Structure formats: C-alpha cells, structure tokens
Fold:
Amino acid sequence: MALSISQLAKEHQQFIFAKLKEAEQHLHPSSTEDEELVRRAVFSVRNKSVAFERFNPTTSILYAIVQDVRPASLEIDFARETLTCNCPQEKWCRHKVGALLALYQYFDSVQNWSATWRAQKSVQLKTLADERSPESWQAMADEVMKRLLPPGRVLEGYGLSAIRTDALERLRRHMPFEREWQPLYKLFMELTILNTIWRHLNETPGHPLDTHYMKYFIEQCIHGLEDTFSEFNARSRLFATDPFYDTLQLITREFLVERQDLFANRLQIYMLLWAVIFYEKPRREKELEAMLALEKDNSDVSFHAVKLMFYVLLQKEQLLQSNMTKISIDNMFDLFELALFAKRAGELASLTTILRAMLPLLTPFLQEVVPVAQRAQYVRNLQNLYEEITLTEDEEASLYSAFGMHGLQPFSFFLIKIERYEEWAALHQVNLSSLSYLEMCGLKDVLQGAPATVLPLYHVYAMTEVEQKSRMNYKQAVRIWKSMRSAAKRAGKTTYFETYMHTIRAEFKRLRALQEEIEKGNLV
Structure:
C-alpha cells in the first residue's frame, strides 16, 4: 500500500501542532540566526526538498530526507513524540522545522504560519545590541524573556534552569566584542534574567518557590554571578559604564525589595553584588539612604539585616555593635549570611563583632532551628568563619560545645591544642566512631602527647569488636590491642598491659577463636 503522507499528517495533527508550538517558543523572530533558520526551513518545503521515504506502522516512525548542502536524515517518532536529526546542530535545526512544516501544509498554510511567527518580532536583537545603553540591553532581555515566559505560563520546576540557560545562550550571541565590556554584559543579563523569572513566578499562581528545583536554580544563578565576578578587572572601570552600574543597582534593589518569598536567598544575592561590584563609598551611602526610606513599605524584607550589611561596608563599627545587642535567635540566619558577607568583603573587625554576638545563641540555633539535614554544613561553614577571628579559650569551648556531634573533629583538635588529652579521650568514648575517624581527629597527636589517656579508649573499641563474636571481629580486636600495647609501651605501662591481657584471656576463656587469635598475635 502506498504511503499517504496526507492521511498520516491528519492522523497526527495534534503532535505536529504541539511540536511547532515548541519550536515557536524556542526560536525567536528577533534573532537573526533563528529568522534565517525558519526562512530556510520554509524554503525547503517550497522547493520540495523534504522527502518522506517510508513509514513503519509497527514502531510509528516516519523516515525522511532533507536535501541540503549535505542531506540530512530524520526520524519522526509519533509514538514517543520525538524528532531526531543526524545533523550536528543541537535542539531545533532547519531540517526538523522543515519536516514538520512539510506535514503541516496538508491541513494549513505554511505561509500563514511563517507570517504569524514573524509578526511576533518587535525589533531585531542585533539592532538593540548596536545601541549600547542600559535601556537597549534591558529591551534585549525583555524581548527574549517574553518569548520564553509568556504571561500566565506555569513553569515546571525542572524547567527553570533550562529557561535561564536558553535565554543566556540567545543573549550572548549579541555580546560586545570589546573584552572590557563583556563581563558587564554577562552580569547584566544574569541578573536581569534572574529578576524576570522570579517576578514571573511571583505573579503567576501555581508556583511554589520552596522546592529543590528552585534551590538548584538559585545555586546555578549564584555560581553564574560568581564566575562573572572573576572576569572583572580590579576596580578599573570605563567612564562610559557608569549608567550600566546605576541600572544594575536599581535591578538589584528591585530584586530584594519587590520580589517575594525566600528572602534569605534574595538577601544572599543582594549582599554578593554589594560586596564585589558596588564598592564606591558614595554609592553605598546613597543605597543605605534609599533602603531606609523604603523600610516602612515592605514587611517581607528584613531591613535590619540590610542596615547591618551597610554598617559593615561603611565601617560604622559603633552602629554595628549597638545593633548586635538587640539580636535574637530569629536573626541568626540573617547574621550568618552577614558574617559570610563580612568575610567576603574583607572586613575583619565587623566579622569579629558579628561572630562574637552570635556565639551565645549558637547552641539553640544549631540544635533547635537549623534543620537536621543542614546542621553538618552549617557547622563546617561556621567553623571556617570562626577560624578567621581570635577567640579566648572559654569562647572556643563554648563554640565547639554548640557544634555538638557535628563539631567532633574541630573540637578534638581544640582539646589537643590546649593539651586537654583526658577530655579528648572521654569525648571519643562518649561518641564512639571508628579508629580511622579517631586518626582524623588527631589520635597520633594524643599518642605523642599523652599515650596513657588513650588506653581506656582502645579498651572500649576492642570490647566492641569482641561483643560481635565472630573471628573477623576477633582479628580486629587483636589489631586494636596491638595498638594499645604500643601506646602502653610509650607511656611506660608495659606491666599494666600484660596484666590487662591476662585478665582479658581469663574473662573470655570460653571463646576459643578469640584465644587463638590472641595467641597468633603474640599478645601474651
């Protein structure tokens, strides 16, 4: 039976409409490259360059060839709703669009589809790129985002990162050639896209923001911003870039104040930009005045944290210290971000003030407020922060006590540093782990400083193995006793160890396998 493309197209009309709609969203009529792609796809249909070779009814796959500079082979899988092409271009290529239009022509006009698609073009992105101004850059971003985020479109969580990547790829085609302008262009587009997507999520019902997808998206944006920061020259700017920094400042403020939900993440990004990009003192002073003027109008923003940030930047130590006396456990997340900010900004005096103020509240914060799954990460970050400042011995003890079990390793090294070896041994008797972890916590240093304190600890670990009552565990117990013997010899307690082993043999005389392993180990 002859292959009826007309009948096949009509049977799968919904699939063809859906794929063309997907192509419309991906291909931007304001992009010169995309416009050329669609033009050549339409030409391939008019020129009858698309040839449908065969259809496999078992797999529902239609095979096609597009005559091009190099012929391209396509497979249209109606069952799985996929299109594949053997050309090197990723995502949408002119061959895929041409094949779809060749099917589309059996129930509608290709010319009308092409005209409708082109009618969505408002202005060429290249034209906007040639007009180097903050307004034209903003218009470029808006032009791309309105295609990717039409009003009312509900986004799936996993699609957030894809939209960001797609938008950045389109906009980077029009990046300035001058190297000194490129980091600024990347930063402008990164921040504008983030602000636009977040605004769309806030304005469109059906978007919960506290999801893993959203957190991954935010992490990607932060990494993108940080990568861009590394490209900026050390405080060397062209005079012509000043209007762009002014606009970036307004976008940053809008992102913090006008967007909603996940304030801690918004504050993190706001602080990141003010620590690295906006370093001029007059600009920081004006921003502080602007934020103080907005304080009464927005309940979603913790202006207290914002004020503290600018006190750090402007080195207003007295104001910072006076505000530190008013903090409560509710402020701890903000203070944590503020401490990270002070470290990044290189403000050691402010960092010391903040961390000392946090210290009395660390125990309830870590044990009651921070989610269990995040405690280890918070402890690591806090440890890194507190290593930047000088603490008294009592303050260090308070710090590691607040860390709890997640701070076992740093607390161990603290006890070794102040030569409180007995407390080190007691700590690890209470929090049994493994010998390999003991070595990570400074076991060798303790053996060198006070080997006698480790003997009870070795006994606890050996008894744990004996209680398992298997030959493999008995062998491990013997290895521990050998280490214990070495420690006893170093401590001058060889007689004690010999008496200890005779007691062990007498206590477990009925465990024949254990007795054999002890004899093999020459422990008696």
Remarks:
- The longest helix spans residues 182-203.
- The mean pLDDT is 87.
- Strands lie at 50-56, 61-66, 72-77, 82-85.
- The CA atoms of residues 222 and 269 lie 7 Å apart.
